[in-house]
Amino acid sequence: MKLSIAVPIFSLAATSVFANFVKERALPLVQSNQLRRVLLRSELLAKSQKLEQIAYTTPGRNRVVGSPGHAETLKYISETVVALDYYEVTTQSFTVPMGNSTLLVGGTAYESRLMTFTPGGHPVAPLVAAANLGCDPADYPAEISGAIALISRGTCEFGLKSALAGAAGAIGVLIYNNVDGALSGTLGQETRPEGSYPPTSGISKADGLALLASLPQTGDLNIILVDVPTYNIIAQTKGGDPENVIQVGAHSDSVEAGPGINDNGSGSIGLLEIAIQLTKFSVNNAVRFSWWAAEEEGLIGATNYVESLSQEELDKIRLYLNFDMIASPNFVYGIYDGDGSAFNQSGPPGSAEAEKLFQEYFTNDAGLPWVDVDFSGRSDYGPFLEAGVASGGLFTGAEVLKTEEEAAIFGGQAGVAYDVNYHAAGDTVANLNMGAFIQNAKAIAHAIATYARSFDSLPAKSVKRSMPRTDAFQISRRFTEHDAHSHGHGCLDNIFS
């Protein structure tokens, strides 16, 4: 007689989920002190050296989007987290318009840098100056129609200047700096209601003033664009409640000028090392690590990600924490002002609680001073804020000068930028502050461990979000001119004039 044996039917997926569940539960539940203890300065340094090696062994010695250096950065991060077999790792692909800009006036070549989101084009036309700062339609004379508008930086967004010039009939736009040095920037988003963008580039203050003094002149502006493919990396724990997620993020790209080891190799490596060490523990709530591409081009990766999520998926993210520049050489320990008490710009419900968690950690656990930094949205947490997701994070400062008071509290040099190598070739491993790096990494680990265990300290899910979901236009309009802020948020500072 043939013996028939009943065998339970499991799909391969169900078997895998069960195996992961058993494996996950065999690990001890994550605790802050235990996760912090396994973070080593030597590992942060070694991985930062790996990023610098990636940048320095590729043309351009950088990790800008579209470069071999950035492609290798993404490969390094993704291969590392996939090999851990602890995360569901996905990528989100998109394209970034990039290219170059050339400017000839009177036979002389001038350095020009295209603004992100500018259209391509080759206008050859008279240069006509806008009145004032080009922030009002009345600043554009009739002569600007059919011309290349010459506009000073100041007061309002670059995108508004370009759109108003386009509405007045300009066929090209040159925005010149109001401080020394070349001008790079972004128009903020693909379109604006005020008008269509003409081809738009930035030039230095010296060149802008020289052209202004030599009018009338004919300009030859040539902007050539290509769509560059890139992707975000998302790694979520296989264990933990996927309906309640703590999401953390950092951008993976640098600017063209240098390898970007503080901006933002520090945030990327800090999260990568924590992701590695978290595999020693189990979690109650899912932890989602994110490495955003094209932050330096205008928060494109994070914006694409947030806009791709349904409201149901957004509601699963109980808190988003962002880490952009956490090892500045002349650092402060900056905590984003989630409750708005210092800068009068608060985040959605839960943001104040995230700020408080970091404050209490630095004060009580680490015994370190801290300062509030403005919650302006000029890094990858901006799209999350605008979608109404509770947000927070840490920041050690960019191009703004350290005050005498801060130098007395944190050490370092007053009257010197928090990072003198910001967006420059000197943003290397040698110029990281490893003390600030490890202390911030431990603070991040504390937050991840805390929320991976419980969201009890956050408002309940039923609390209504304080800000409506919106688009990148409103993101740029929400924030004031960056020179008014005290710490300088780098990166998306250049959305503003």
TrEMBL record:
Keyword set includes S-adenosyl-L-methionine: no
Gene Ontology molecular function: any one: metalloexopeptidase activity
Pfam families the UniProt entry points to: PA (PF02225), Peptidase_M28 (PF04389)
Cofactors that this protein relies on: Zn(2+)
Top enzyme category: hydrolase
SUPFAM superfamilies per the UniProt record, alphabetical: PA domain, Zn-dependent exopeptidases
Gene3D superfamilies: 3.50.30.30, Zn peptidases
Keyword set includes Phosphoprotein: no
Entry-linked InterPro entries: M28_fam, M28_SGAP-like, PA_dom_sf, PA_domain, Peptidase_M28
EC numbers, comma separated: 3.4.-.-
Domain of life: Eukaryota
Domain PA as annotated: residue spans: 125-211
Signal peptide: 1-19
GO aspect biological process, one term: proteolysis
Keywords attached to this entry: Aminopeptidase, Hydrolase, Metal-binding, Protease, Signal, Zinc
Ranges for domain Peptidase M28: 232-447
Family in the record: Belongs to the peptidase M28 family. M28A subfamily. Belongs to the peptidase M28 family. M28B subfamily.
Protein name: Peptide hydrolase
Organism (species): Coleophoma cylindrospora
